[in-house]
Inverse folding.
């Protein structure tokens, strides 16, 4: 149940698909390149393997619990957090002004994969801190930034996001928490549900970001404001002083991520500070959404990678059946076990290249000097976000389940570890917006709202890739055929929604998840094909490690042959329309 | 989290698709008919809802545990078991000679769905007793039958199957447990793993069926014999007396089914009695396999039904979003929630009709007076078995996962109940032969071994159904089209394996699971179409409840439109062959 960072694949993707060096050079980051990235990833990999991964089972068995003084984290977590923070990992992508290292988002993403693979429950804590830093960094005034950002960047304090309420889950319009003006601050009152790492004893302070309503706020989502509510109020020196009226009332008893405390938070006239403008909280949430949702998608990749490593080891070790010479056979030789391992491996590679390419779009949007170029990259980032969140997390369900299946009976026994990955993974398509929410975002805001233009731009690039495959002597005809069919499926699905959504008000909603999954497989397949093109070019030039590069050709082929055909089933669902989905009365269901 | 037996759908399938009355009449069971079946099911449904279902959460929270005197079952289970046994439910399908009621297997199957829905961990205990009765009833001599069968049939004692060992899971050839002759009995020594309900305190005795090797046995699967090893040896009156040397050493700490003790069993010169002929144990296991595997498939249906009922209730109750008039909207109105509910409902109906039709093939094979007819039904039974086991249990993973997804954040919280179904369900594709084992059985013994003849006979019947659809004015063109495409996919997949398996030794193994799943969807779709034909006939004749019958038309349509297209993805995988699956070296994986 050890973990090793798959640095070779990450390195390949950063260098050859993301084109990391060019990305950094264009931004004037001359000192940052893929070699530096490799060094950073290697350092992170060591911490992940040696410190965080060994605590993963411990945290599952002995989850966070309520103590007399608040939440007590799992054994060993406080020390691990200190090592993590002391090494500066919280500040990787933070601006230099606030003590950060200002490294590209795509490198931060590659690094974060490690934390989530090693110990997803632990990694949720810095992930939430990153979200808080982003919200404060983008929207708070300079005084609040100066007070809170540096301590979050060093990891001395952690951050949380307080959004959901009992009657306001996917529906943020229903938020009821109140904020009453009181001089230079506000008094926040209400309860927040499902607050990840809402309390713990690992740091001196916790910085809660809270959505609440001002007294004069308009109803619905246009009346929500964002507040900073620290666990301990800061004294004149900016150090934690008086205890604020924010408390964790109880913890959820969850299927997985036991070490990540999921808190019911109570605010009773807690002192809070307004971030940005009143009634603009939802917009601020949206600016953080690309990063937060891509982070959860990344968790889907990371936990699948961890499950794969476990299953691969088991498949090598487990003997079943006997050869004629009396020697026993490791199950890794059985074709159906290979099918499962190859499904895991090829999907993981597709997930990884998509996660990193999507993360790099944020960098490209930020670094671009031409506003039109920046806008194009931002639109692509926006388009990718629900795919990364939705597809990677749904796929993680299948892959962690295969991890159990490869282990056979042992997979169902908790001590083996596969079951924990499966349980931990199940939250991913739910939090930070369910798959259904991602799919509506994809179909609505990202597709129909711009008449499918940004999606058409993506499909056009895919067509170009298909044309390249056709015009060069590519090794595998099956790849070309499967990829072309998948692009055609995506094109047809897009057109059918553009044509049909206006006339059928249920079409977008009922087709959305299949539509999203279709584009998940298609984007994954496309970027695998692009990876294979690079691998082939390197092989032809005699560059690189031929074992790795031919493996990439094979995983691409496997993905195209065995996973891309699922786009056909998704398309059929989209084309079927909403009639049979919506036809039954509630009583008939 | 209550449970109600979906008696209307079961009644429809038994009357209209299984043709239960004709089946019973042909067997000379004039007193048994669908009306009697309805009465029996209603009685079982009451016990399931009122006694077993309320213990499902209790058993999950307070699972079976090791005590000083052996395994202690979950609170309330002993009393529930007594009610269950006292009502005669163990003896439903047992021969009259041994105190049974000799009812058809398909009715027993319909009843068993209830126990598994209500409390799967509990229901495993009588399920194992049924297996033990079948083994003893078919293969033991009259003296052993007289000693053990009546007490198992009343439920005074329970039965277990002791097959797996640490190094002999899917590979039974590796079984090492020894049986030493000692006069009229044998002394059994060895350890058995994953023994379901291997020990408990609910009954006076436990009858273990144990696979072991005689001293002179040939190696491999041809040297395995079957023994009865009672927990307490029987005295001269046939009552439990001296304690036998069989003990549970420990329990597995499992992902789910916590109330079902999964035992490591130790036999140290335990007294055992040979069942049937020496070295014939594997053949005896095979005769039980159809029933045992179909029972596990049935569990997949049953737990999906339970998960559906929970999710449906949640979707009705949970409010999110607000209408213009200020009223809030239950999420059941959202198209994507409908998509998930309809996926669950339509798949569950397809699973149920397949499970009952397959179970009826066992009755038809048994009741047929013409040996050729009996052989035909037995071949169909054999063909269905791996599909029922493989497809229903794999589908149960997706459906119980949808049960969580519909609940959103609440689904990840254990108290809501959805998570338990998801955890419980995960064992189903593993025990009683993994999905991979089912798929190899399907492709090898059930298909290639007879040159695809039995599968061709099934496909021919499906073609006839398609022809019927074409020649009658059927309401939904999309159903006809999707069903025809799926039949064509099945036909092509069959031919491609028949053509390719000889030349490519990895083809059958690497394609097998996709091949099995293809036929799962296809069989489910076919029987849904046949159900819809019956429903349409009734509607045209003004018979039956139009709400139910039109719902059946809609679920059939949904299944054909949204689930049958998956056969295309399965076919593509089968046609891709084994090359990319097997190409990587172990080091490249």
């Amino acid at each position: 149940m050890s973990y090793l960072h798959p640095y070779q694949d990450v390195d390949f993707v950063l260098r050859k698909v993301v084109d990391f060096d060019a990305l950094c050079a264009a931004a004037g980051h001359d000192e940052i390149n893929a070699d530096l990235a490799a060094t950073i990833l290697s350092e992170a990999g060591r911490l992940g393997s040696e410190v965080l991964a060994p605590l993963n089972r411990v945290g599952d068995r002995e989850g966070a619990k309520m103590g007399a003084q608040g939440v007590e984290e799992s054994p060993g977590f406080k020390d691990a957090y200190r090592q993590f923070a002391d090494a500066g990992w919280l500040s990787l992508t933070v601006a230099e002004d606030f003590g950060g290292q200002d490294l590209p988002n795509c490198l931060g993403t590659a690094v974060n994969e490690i934390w989530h693979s090693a110990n997803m429950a632990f990694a949720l804590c810095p992930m939430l801190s990153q979200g808080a830093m982003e919200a404060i960094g983008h929207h708070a005034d300079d005084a609040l930034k100066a007070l809170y950002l540096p301590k979050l960047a060093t990891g001395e304090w952690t951050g949380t996001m307080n959004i959901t309420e009992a009657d306001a889950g996917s529906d943020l319009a229903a938020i009821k928490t109140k904020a009453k003006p009181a001089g230079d601050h506000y008094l926040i009152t209400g309860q927040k549900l499902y607050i990840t790492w809402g309390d713990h004893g690992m740091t001196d302070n916790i910085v809660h970001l809270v959505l609440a309503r001002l007294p004069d706020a308009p109803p619905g989502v246009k009346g929500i404001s964002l507040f900073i509510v620290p666990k301990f109020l800061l004294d004149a020196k900016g150090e934690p002083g008086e205890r604020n009226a924010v408390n964790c009332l109880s913890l959820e008893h969850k299927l997985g991520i036991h070490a990540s405390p999921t808190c019911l938070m109570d605010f009773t006239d807690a002192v809070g500070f307004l971030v940005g403008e009143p009634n603009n909280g939802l917009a601020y949430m949206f600016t953080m959404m690309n990063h937060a949702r891509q982070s959860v998608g990344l968790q889907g990749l990371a936990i699948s990678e961890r499950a794969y490593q476990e299953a691969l080891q088991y498949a090598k070790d487990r003997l079943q059946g006997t050869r004629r010479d009396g020697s026993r056979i490791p199950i890794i030789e059985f074709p159906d076990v290979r099918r499962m391992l190859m499904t895991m491996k090829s999907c993981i590679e597709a997930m990884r290249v998509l996660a990193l390419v999507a993360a790099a779009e944020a960098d490209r949007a930020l670094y671009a000097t031409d506003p039109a170029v920046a806008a194009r990259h931002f639109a692509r980032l926006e388009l990718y976000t629900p795919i990364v969140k939705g597809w990677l997390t749904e796929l993680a369900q299948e892959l962690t389940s295969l991890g159990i299946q490869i282990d056979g009976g042992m997979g169902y026994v908790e001590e083996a570890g596969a079951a924990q990955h499966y349980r931990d993974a199940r939250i991913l398509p739910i939090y930070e917006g369910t798959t259904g929410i991602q799919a509506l975002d994809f179909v609505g805001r990202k597709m129909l709202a711009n008449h499918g233009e940004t999606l058409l731009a993506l499909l056009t690039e895919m067509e170009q890739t298909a044309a390249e495959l056709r015009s060069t002597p590519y090794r595998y005809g099956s790849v070309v055929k499967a990829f072309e069919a998948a692009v055609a499926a995506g094109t047809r699905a897009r057109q059918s929604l553009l044509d049909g959504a206006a006339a059928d008000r249920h079409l977008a909603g009922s087709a959305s998840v299949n539509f999203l999954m279709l584009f998940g497989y298609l984007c994954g397949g496309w970027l695998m094909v692009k990876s294979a093109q690079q691998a082939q070019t390197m092989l032809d030039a005699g560059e690189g490690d031929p074992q790795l590069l031919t493996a990439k050709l094979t995983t691409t082929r496997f993905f195209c042959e065995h996973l891309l055909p699922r786009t056909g089933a998704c398309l059929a669902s989209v084309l079927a329309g909403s009639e049979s989905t919506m036809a039954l009365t509630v009583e008939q269901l």
